[in-house]
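Whiteboard transcription, Tuesday session. T.W. wrote the structure tokens on the left side:
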């Protein structure tokens, strides 16, 4: 048997896969064979490590040296220089200030220094299609401990003591929720995973499903044991084909090795899992709508009580949590509640995974301890704002969340602090906005999403969000009028207090939070007929600063309406009657001569 002295980890998550990582892996294997290293160095497929904007990602172990944006033609140099000669290929490390002695390990990147990975503990480090890879890192030890050494009530008490709260939205205490389902009367109970993840820009759950599916399976098996369920459903959107494929592989492997099915670890406990593919309706993120969809009915919420813990799937007691919540459970059982609760704040324990998107330099997934400041996430982990522009706000919690402005950059990221600021944790979407973002347009965008996704069952959501959207569209088109702001506030508060489900109750949040922190932008749109950010085309005029224009004609060549004229090397001008306000000129000018006003 050959001794494997090194592993080459190649990211095969959706992002890297779309950037030709399969071909990178193929070329690495061919180059290793050509160099007669294939017997001592193994290429391993992994899930997403989190650095989503710099793929394909390749990591050489045991050193942990990371290569980014690797192309198939780069593989020969990696093999010949690094693996044969021991000289890391610095040009592929994404760092310009190397000394001869310096090599870059992925843990040394600022992106990772303030992270603490629990839910993402295996993502990017194991082969998600190889059960042995998961077991090698302690996989299924927690399940064995739970079903052979603990009673169901002891499992629930351990989860309660850990302080774990649901990571999918509202942040309800997980152990308490499990206790409700356990105490409910019923011959049959179900466990459900909400893997629908419908928020724009969110991909936390997807990455766990693609990179570490066994952590979900183990977490659900433990939860099923705790509440007395012998069957579970994973509700995952059909738009996640890679996640579904790897889930199916993982479930089959667990069944074949006795980690799912009958008499787990000789305990007498039986548990099986099913996958239900959803059609991508955002409302099915609400647990009663999700249950209706699993049952084959239209995905619509129902009134509560009774809650699913009492009357859920097919009328039986059921528990619903999301992927990230279940992924934390094996670690809590294996290492103990005290270990987990030692991180975070008094009321928000452990860590939270965020999807960093928008106008931020380092987009991707970051798992951070609860209580970290927003500033640390954006500047220390995220690297700051693209083109070093001014930070304006962050939309946190997806369409159901709210905006956090610049003056609250040092806010603690925990459930209670975010709610006090007019936002919410949500599932963990975090969209960074810069000085060029119009907050009125942003509110319109998110409200248009939730209005479109409304199931239409209740009047406040169906009609109220439509009226709010109509008002916002008028405002961004320069047709706002006195009283619009007050109307938005009244409608928003009414919908929050009367809508049937969480989608409707939180739909006004982006509008209400931007009104709270950026009211002056709404007033400028309505009273002055101006967009301060220069983003609303109906309210924007473009002009050229003659003092800055050098007459290069780049803007004129980019203008599709031939609205820009001028002699070479002389200041140009824009004809406002011809200008269609597309902004093409703004993107082409390298001298800051084009202004929006």
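and on the right, the sequence the group agreed on:
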């Amino acid at each position: 048997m050959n001794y494997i002295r090194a592993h080459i980890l190649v990211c095969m998550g959706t992002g890297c896969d779309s950037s030709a990582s399969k071909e990178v892996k193929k070329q690495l294997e061919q180059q290793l064979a050509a160099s007669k290293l294939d017997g001592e160095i193994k290429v391993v497929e992994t899930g997403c490590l989190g650095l989503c904007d710099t793929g394909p990602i390749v990591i050489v172990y045991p050193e942990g040296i990371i290569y980014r944006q690797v192309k198939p033609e780069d593989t020969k140099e990696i093999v010949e220089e690094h693996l044969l000669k021991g000289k890391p290929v610095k040009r592929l490390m994404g760092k310009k200030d190397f000394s001869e002695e310096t090599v870059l390990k992925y843990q040394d990147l600022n992106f990772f220094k303030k992270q603490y990975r629990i839910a993402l503990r295996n993502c990017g480090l194991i082969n998600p299609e190889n059960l042995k890879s998961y077991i090698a890192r302690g996989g299924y030890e927690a399940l064995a401990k739970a079903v052979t050494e603990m009673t169901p009530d002891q499992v629930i008490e351990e989860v309660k003591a850990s302080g774990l709260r649901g990571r999918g939205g509202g942040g309800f205490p997980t152990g308490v929720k499990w206790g409700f389902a356990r105490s409910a009367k019923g011959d049959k109970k179900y466990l459900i995973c909400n893997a629908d993840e419908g928020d724009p820009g969110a991909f936390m759950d997807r990455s766990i499903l693609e990179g570490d599916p066994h952590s979900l399976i183990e977490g659900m098996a433990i939860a099923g044991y705790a509440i007395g369920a012998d069957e579970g459903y994973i509700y995952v959107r059909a738009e996640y084909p890679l996640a579904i494929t790897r889930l199916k592989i993982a479930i089959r492997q667990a069944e074949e090795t006795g980690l799912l099915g009958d008499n787990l670890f000789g305990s007498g406990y039986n548990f099986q899992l099913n996958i239900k593919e959803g059609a991508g309706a955002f409302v099915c993120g609400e647990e009663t709508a999700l249950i209706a969809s699993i049952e084959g009915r239209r995905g619509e919420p129902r009134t509560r009580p009774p809650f699913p813990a009492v009357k859920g799937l097919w009328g039986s007691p059921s528990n619903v949590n999301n992927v990230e919540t279940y992924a934390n459970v094996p670690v809590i059982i294996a290492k103990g509640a005290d270990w987990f609760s030692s991180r975070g704040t008094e009321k928000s324990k452990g860590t939270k995974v965020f999807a960093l998107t928008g106008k931020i330099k380092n987009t991707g997934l970051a798992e951070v301890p609860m209580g970290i400041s927003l500033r640390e996430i954006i500047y220390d982990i995220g690297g700051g704002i693209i083109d070093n522009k001014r930070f304006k706000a962050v939309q946190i919690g997806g369409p159901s969340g709210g905006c956090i402005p610049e003056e609250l950059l040092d806010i603690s990221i925990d459930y209670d602090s975010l709610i006090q600021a007019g936002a919410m944790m949500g599932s963990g979407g975090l969209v960074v906005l810069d000085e060029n973002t119009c907050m009125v347009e942003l509110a319109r965008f998110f409200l248009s999403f939730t209005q479109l996704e409304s199931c239409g069952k209740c009047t406040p959501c169906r009609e109220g969000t439509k009226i709010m959207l109509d008002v916002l569209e008028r405002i961004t088109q320069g047709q706002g009028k006195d009283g619009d702001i007050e109307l938005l506030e009244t409608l928003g508060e009414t919908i929050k207090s009367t809508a049937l489900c969480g989608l409707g109750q939180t739909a006004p949040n982006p509008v209400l939070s931007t009104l709270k922190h950026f009211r002056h932008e709404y007033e400028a749109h309505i009273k002055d007929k101006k967009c301060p950010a220069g983003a609303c085309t109906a309210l924007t005029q473009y002009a050229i600063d003659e003092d800055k224009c050098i007459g290069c004609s780049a803007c004129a060549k980019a203008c599709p309406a031939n609205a820009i004229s001028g002699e070479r090397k002389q200041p140009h001008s824009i004809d406002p009657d011809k200008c269609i306000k597309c902004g093409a000129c703004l993107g082409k000018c390298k001298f800051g001569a084009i202004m929006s006003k």
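Someone added at the bottom: The chain has 24 helices and 17 strands.
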